[in-house]
Amino acid sequence: MNKLLYIAAALALLAGCTQKEPADAVSIAVFVPGVTSGNAVYQMLADGVQAAAQEHSAQTPDAPVQVSVIEAGTNQAEWSGRLTAVAASGEYDVIISSNPSMPDIAVPLTQQFPEQKFILLDAYCEDNGNIFTVRYNQREQAYLTGYMAGLVTTASHEQMPYANEAKTVGLIAAQEYPVMNDIILPSFIEGLRAVDSGITVDFRIVGNWYDATKAAELARSMHQNGADVILPIAGGAAQGVIAAAQEESFYITWFDDNGFAKAPGYIISSTVMHQDKMAQEAAAQFLAGNTPFGSAQTVGIEQGYIDFITDDPLYESTVNSAIRQAMQQELDRITSGELQLPSP
Ligand code: RBF
Concatenated DSSP letters for 52-82? Predict the structure, then answer.
């Protein structure tokens, strides 16, 4: 037994020595500021980069692409140190990451490690030659979500069985951050008030992106205070909002990916950002040597990266047809250009 282990160890060592990476292999780090599990924005990021790497490796077997997904964990105080270590290793041709706080962490590193390139999605940073950013038009995303929530909170009990008399909706955010306070919350309200200026919003904070128990408690309390539709933007903690909706019978508007199947009959909409598509395209663009470092892009409905899902059978079975028609009219106003919602 011991002998066998020795042989295995020796073989592993040998393999380690002889299997040098080809000189032109490309290495990509996917830096996840948080955890991928239960966080669609990060799952889409990792999936998209892996898809681009696989496609590239299949086409150019002599230059395989290595992708390392590095989870920085939920303690945000540790992210800067973790990212510094990844950049300092010099192992990665590019570090791809996502969320609006990443430029603040990456910019100082571009001075310390002038060779290190960064692609930051769901983020905005102009004029740094080592950084390329793409952000989504979250005014469109939150406006559409608010419009839907507005239609349902003002609906009759006959139209939507869990709708109550109060014109109150909720937004449960994991934490406050500039994009939340300056774009998502105000645009959600903009959408609500476009339906009815008398709608009020109950806005509450979980304190982190993972505590589903706390998020469920908040959701129950908001429902008791009149909210019949709640938008969770809380990563893994949103699971608690779903559980509370199923126990207490209220509706959820879902953000970032298609959430209809998470709780059939309770999820009334999904306003998605196609971060998987964007991550794949941005990684492919890097592998082709075409990343426009130093620039910052904003993409939305027109470019095909923000989408209100209307073709899911659960949308049809959950949402009353008059409400779906009203929603379609508002969508048409945006796609035709009649209603323009540029990102602030
Ligand atoms: N969204 C998630 O789904 N999971 C997360 O763990 C997460 N962490 C974040 C941390 C910070 C500091 C910031 C600013 C945002 C974070 N987001 C997270 C939110 C995400 O970037 C985006 O704003 C929302 O998903 C809405 O599209």
Answer: HHHHHHHH-TTS-EEEEEEE--S-GGGHHHH
What are the strands of the beta sheet with 227-233, ordered from one edge?
200-205, 168-173, 227-233, 251-256, 267-273, 306-308
Render pLDDT for 201-252 as a digit per residue (tens, 0 to 9): 999 999 999 999 999 999 999 999 999 999 999 999 999 999 999 999 999 9
| DSSP string computed for 90-110 | T--SEEEEESTTHHHHHHHHH
Q: How remote is the CA of residue 192 from the centroid of ligand 1, in Å?
A: 23
**Residue nearest atom 5 in ligand 1 by C-alpha distance:** 235
Q: Are 341 and 335 in contact (CB under 8 A)?
A: no
d(CA 28, CA 5): 33
Residue 33's contacts (CB-CB under 8 Å, 6 or more residues apart) are 72, 76, 79, 97, 98, 99, 101, 102
Q: Encode pLDDT of 162-212 as tens digits.
A: 999 999 999 999 999 999 999 999 999 999 999 999 999 999 999 999 999
Q: What are phi and psi of 232, to 5 degrees?
A: -90, 130
The residues lining ligand 1, judged by C-beta closer than 6 Å to any ligand atom, are 33-34, 39, 41, 76, 99-101, 122, 177, 179, 209, 233, 235, 255-256
Residue 44 Cα to ligand 1 middle (Å) = 13
122 φ/ψ sector (left φ>0, alpha ψ -120 to 50, else beta): left
* Atom 2 of ligand 1: nearest residue by CA position: 235
